[in-house]
Amino acid sequence: MRYWLVKSDPESYGWPEFLKEGKTDWTGVRNFQARNNLQAMMYGDEVLFYHSQQGRDIVGIATVTKPAFPDPTAKSGNWVAVELTPLQSFKNLVNLEVMKQTPELKNISLIRQSRLSVMPVTGEEFAKIMELSGLQD
DNA sequence: GCCAACGTTGGC
DNA sequence: GCCAACGTTGGC
User: Is the CB of A20 under 7 A from strand B?
Assistant: First the structure.
């Protein structure tokens, strides 16, 4: 199983709406690197859900319930979407600033490549984030 | 609101 | 094919 992180501006789509809907198609990605990451996701992979712009926190974990399929919102081009389902809400939100101050997370893509919206997370990074969230996994 | 990072576009 | 201009994202 692999670990990932997706970003969303809570103003357009936040964790509470995601919980309410019960699942969502992660569409609209129009960046090749992010697209490649979506394509590499497999059923059951765990995905950290990060609120960009407002909060700047990882707020919970989702899981991939449908691997990559053609993005229905794309008018042209080879873009894909996945279906995500909420798995767990974090007890303690994990803030960007805290991650920056955590030595184990200094190489995390979230910090190194701030504009990428879908990115891989290592097992070690995932474990550390779980620890910071107050959930033991 | 500003600005840095960076991806994309278009002129040459 | 290079690179300047421009647009977008996201941290601050």
Answer: no
Q: How far is CA A63 from CA A54, A78, A81, in A?
A: 23, 23, 14
This prediction's pTM: 0.94
Contact A132, A105 (CB under 8 A): no
Gap from A116 CA to B6 C1', Å: 10
Nucleotides of C under 7 A from a protein CB: 8-12
Tens of pLDDT, residue by residue, chain A (137 residues):
999 999 999 999 999 999 999 999 999 999 999 999 999 999 999 999 999 999 999 999 999 999 999 999 887 788 999 999 999 999 999 999 999 999 999 999 999 998 999 999 999 999 999 999 998 66
